[in-house]
Amino acid sequence: MPLNLRRLFLAGMAASVLGGCSSSDSFEEPLPVPDVVSSVELEPVWNASIGEGFDEQFLQLSPLNSGETIFVVSTDGQLIAVDAEHGTFVWTKNLETQVLAGVGGDSGHLYLVSGDAKLMALDPENGEELWQVALPNETIATPRSNGQVVVAQTTDGKVLAFDTATGEKRWQYDGVVPVLTLRATAAPLVGREMTLVSFANGRLFALDSRTGQPLWQYTVGEPQGRTELERLVDVTSEPLILEGVALVTGYQGKLALVELRTGQEIWSRPTSSLRTPEVASGKIFTAEANGHIVAYDGNTRSELWTQDQLGWRQVTQPVALGDYLLVGDYEGYIHVLSLEDGSFQGQVEFDDEGLLVPMQRIGDRVLVYGNSGKLTLFELEQRD
């Protein structure tokens, strides 16, 4: 397993911060993998292998599920269209360039960003390039589109929108980035009228999708402390969009519900998370920065349970599947928890190079993309 994924949660992230800053602060050691007596099992429906996977880099190469086809890329530029039902390859394309972010797309295009900061639009039928444009800096967040514009966010806080048909630049918004940030950027959420973007200064912005003009901003976290490390308030998780509201989290910040039209806070409570929360069975689930999984009552926001046996194991975004909650960790284990009380119900060692990208629910199954390039569709089965 690569060193930067075996190290402690923030130490691994701080090793690749912007601005050349570093810290000698110590962090907690990860807890050992819990011993679990499984009552449910994750059974593979199909398996595939995608190039060199993450090639020992701290990247978020999330696949794109379009329904019948899953589009997935490795950092060495192997782009593959996979049949979602059977796991067979529909087509493959060697992009002959490094890729630093996952696949974005709309009805007519796929979008990727190369290691030399080129935004590429590709044909989803065969992977052929349709156009490309240069970005002002490195981009590690998935580009997103509403069919009219595709939006990319660079690591130095620039948000740029391009015409999906021609690649012509439509607008640019320059956000504020602190001296020290984590090497992670939330992908923009691009709607017909509004685009939500998150910044390393603890702010969530709503921009007009047509002009890039700010509509509102919400403070997810306020910097506190004396050192740059103590003042980290990155918002690296995408908001979870519900009916007319957004559920947001931030590192050393808040778990908050925000009104989409105005940006007004409906409620909030302190938290520290780099992952998008999950909502299921009337509960809200968060993966905390310290590895704890916490469940809250969706109506009262009172804490229902905490699973603390995954401390500092760099857990992934939680995903609900039936009566269970699934999270991965830096050693490549998938843990199955009970939605009701957080107890361990199952466990599988999936990829010894680790798990970074969120698992994706596809119907009653879950898609998992491991750091080594292993791609598997699982279904949960009760153990005899």
List its traits.
membrane, 32 strands, 384 residues, globular, mainly beta, palmitate, lipoprotein, 2 helices, disordered N terminus, Methylamine Dehydrogenase, Chain H, four-stranded antiparallel sheet
How would you describe what is shown here?
This protein has two helices and 32 strands. The radius of gyration is 20 Å and the shape is globular. The protein is mainly beta. The N terminus is likely disordered. The longest helix has 6 residues. Strand 4 and strand 5 form a beta hairpin. The chain is 3% helix and 42% strand. The two termini are 33 Å apart.
SSE blueprint:
Layout: H1 3-6, H2 9-14, E1 40-49, E2 64-65, E3 69-73, E4 78-83, E5 89-94, E6 104-105, E7 110-113, E8 118-122, E9 129-134, E10 144-145, E11 149-153, E12 158-163, E13 169-174, E14 189-190, E15 194-198, E16 203-208, E17 214-219, E18 240-241, E19 245-249, E20 253-259, E21 265-271, E22 278-280, E23 283-287, E24 293-297, E25 303-307, E26 319-321, E27 324-328, E28 333-338, E29 344-349, E30 360-362, E31 365-369, E32 374-382
Antiparallel strand pairs: 1-32, 2-3, 3-4, 4-5, 6-7, 7-8, 8-9, 10-11, 11-12, 12-13, 14-15, 15-16, 16-17, 18-19, 19-20, 20-21, 22-23, 23-24, 24-25, 26-27, 27-28, 28-29, 30-31, 31-32
